[in-house]
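Run log // design_07
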């Protein structure tokens, strides 16, 4: 599970606030800290993207293994299609077989692609929102560190502003972790074989609604 590491700005603030004087190396160390914050941000964005890549693969597996067979069965159970298919199966006319496949195949594939888009698009939007939130929070962390650097020449100023900066530095780790846990649960429920009487169509519709609800919580 993705872990949003709280930047060590907090530790730096607590440390320097207890010092009588600020060492001359402090500004350089603070600048290095800013680079590390950016590296941590990049790592967490990468983990987030990989998490959602896996969820998209899970959705593709649902489409391929469950939804498409159920959809095809529903289509071929319709009287007109069933009669045409029965005729094709029992005929040796290659032209008619090819015509049936070239007409029916693209229509079926179009419906399958539409359903995949319906399921994948909410995941994409949720990923973008979470990534934007992570980037914004790390941007705030870098801004705080930059401002802190400007105060490193005066221990009194650092101590005076310590509490204010600590309250500003608010990486929403628990919220983001909770969203990822919920996303994982929603996708797992989509893949779970129907044991509660819900068919594949109902599970797909419920999946879309639950992902939309997660997006709305951001």
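design_07 sequence
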């Amino acid at each position: 599970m993705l872990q949003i590491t709280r930047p060590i700005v907090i530790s730096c603030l607590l440390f320097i606030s207890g010092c009588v004087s600020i060492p001359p190396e402090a500004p350089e160390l603070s600048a290095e800290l800013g680079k590390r914050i950016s590296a941590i941000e990049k790592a967490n964005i990468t983990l987030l993207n990989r998490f959602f890549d896996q969820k998209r693969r899970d959705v593709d597996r649902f489409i391929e293994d469950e939804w498409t067979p159920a959809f095809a069965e529903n289509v071929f159970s319709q009287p007109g299609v069933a009669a045409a298919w029965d005729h094709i199966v029992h005929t040796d006319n290659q032209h008619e077989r090819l015509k049936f496949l070239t007409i029916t195949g693209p229509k079926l594939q179009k419906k399958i692609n539409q359903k995949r888009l319906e399921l994948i698009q909410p995941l994409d939007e949720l990923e973008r929102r979470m990534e934007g939130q992570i980037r914004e929070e790390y941007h705030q962390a870098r801004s705080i560190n930059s401002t802190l650097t400007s105060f490193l020449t005066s221990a009194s100023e650092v101590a005076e502003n310590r509490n204010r900066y600590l309250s500003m530095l608010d990486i929403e780790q628990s919220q983001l972790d909770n969203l990822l846990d919920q996303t994982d649960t929603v996708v797992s429920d989509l893949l779970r074989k129907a044991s509660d009487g819900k068919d594949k169509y109902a599970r797909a519709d419920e999946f879309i609604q639950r992902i939309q609800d997660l997006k709305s919580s951001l």
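The chain has one domain: 9-216.
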